[in-house]
UniProtKB/TrEMBL annotation:
Residues spanning the signal sequence: 1-21
PANTHER family per record: ALIPHATIC SULFONATES-BINDING PROTEIN-RELATED (PTHR30024), TAURINE-BINDING PERIPLASMIC PROTEIN (PTHR30024:SF47)
Family the UniProt entry places it in: Belongs to the bacterial solute-binding protein SsuA/TauA family.
Compartments where located: Periplasm
Keywords from the named record: Signal
Protein name: PhnD/SsuA/transferrin family substrate-binding protein
Organism: Ancylobacter radicis
Signal is among the record's keywords: yes
Length: 285
């Protein structure tokens, strides 16, 4: 009987070792290409490996849709995404929430020329307002919601146009559009890029829901627990590693929030409805 048990035990150990050796694959929806991903998250990758004892592998995805497909196909375990993307991803993949990544001063605003004709929100009626990336939390949904909160109906009281940020700033300066919807950090960038122009804010939204790290719904429980506990117990060290990335400076001063639930993103769902989207089964294109 002992002889029979030895091979069985060996197979069990080999299987367990193989499972342990499998890397935990980590993707980010708004970074394209492995080189850019490594530049932004290389330090974080090493820190998370140290705190969890897991082998963390960075996996580039070409789009938010590709991230969902990779998760559903079992090609990634962890995905960091924005609040607008999470709402759609929840519908398509039903991932588990790991932790929220807070971004200080993460809110939407409506900017106009300080010396231009727009002084109040009422002046925007019948005018063109530029939004950034379609479906973006802080460049599209958030600004539209900030206007709706003040009584301006999307697509009715004004004409919304999708224009990239710097091009929109140039159009605003020329007078081709009346305002730009964007977040706090983007407005600061525009002020640096166009030092001879002065901008004013006529509307601000509430702080937006945080970016969120989610796990594939069938992730091994021990892996899920190890990752969550790493953020809970070593949040400061992990955040220090995150903000070594240049674009990740947006998280500076923020914290990781483990007490987070799906209903915390209902505000994002209301923003989608503001722009006329009622079905969350596909990304807004």
């Amino acid at each position: 009987m002992f002889r029979k048990l030895v091979p069985a035990l060996a197979i069990t150990l080999v299987t367990a070792f193989s499972a342990m050796a499998e890397p935990v694959r980590f993707a980010v929806t708004d970074i394209e290409g492995l080189e850019a991903l490594q530049q932004e998250f290389g330090s974080f990758q090493k820190a998370l490996e140290e705190k969890t004892g897991l082998d963390i592998e960075l996996i580039p995805v070409s789009s938010r849709t590709a991230a969902v497909e990779a998760m559903n196909a079992g090609h990634v375990e962890l995905v960091l995404t924005g609040p607008a993307e999470y709402v759609i991803m929840k519908q398509l993949s039903d991932p588990r929430i790991v932790v929220a990544w807070q971004r200080p001063d993460y809110f939407a605003q409506i900017a106009v020329l300080a010396n231009g004709p727009i002084r109040t929100l009422k002046d925007l009626k019948g005018k063109k307002i530029a939004f950034g990336s379609v479906g973006s939390t802080s460049q599209h949904l958030g600004p539209a919601q900030a206007l709706a909160d003040q009584g301006l109906v999307y697509g009715k009281d004004y004409e919304g146009v999708i224009i990239s940020r710097n091009v929109a700033a140039e159009a605003l300066i020329r007078g081709d559009i009346a305002a730009i919807g964007l977040n706090f950090g983007h407005l600061n960038s525009i002020r640096k890029a166009f030092p001879n122009a002065a901008f004013a804010v006529v509307a601000r939204g509430r702080d937006l829901p945080n970016d969120i790290l989610v796990a594939r719904k069938d992730i091994p429980e021990d892996v899920y627990v190890k990752v969550r506990e790493a953020f809970l117990k070593h949040g400061n060290e992990l955040m220090s590693a995150v903000i070594e990335g240049e674009d990740n400076k947006k998280f500076k001063g923020g914290i990781f929030i483990t007490d987070i639930k799906d209903s915390d993103y209902d505000y994002v769902r209301s923003m989608y409805r503001t722009i006329g989207v009622e079905n969350f089964s596909s990304f807004v294109e």
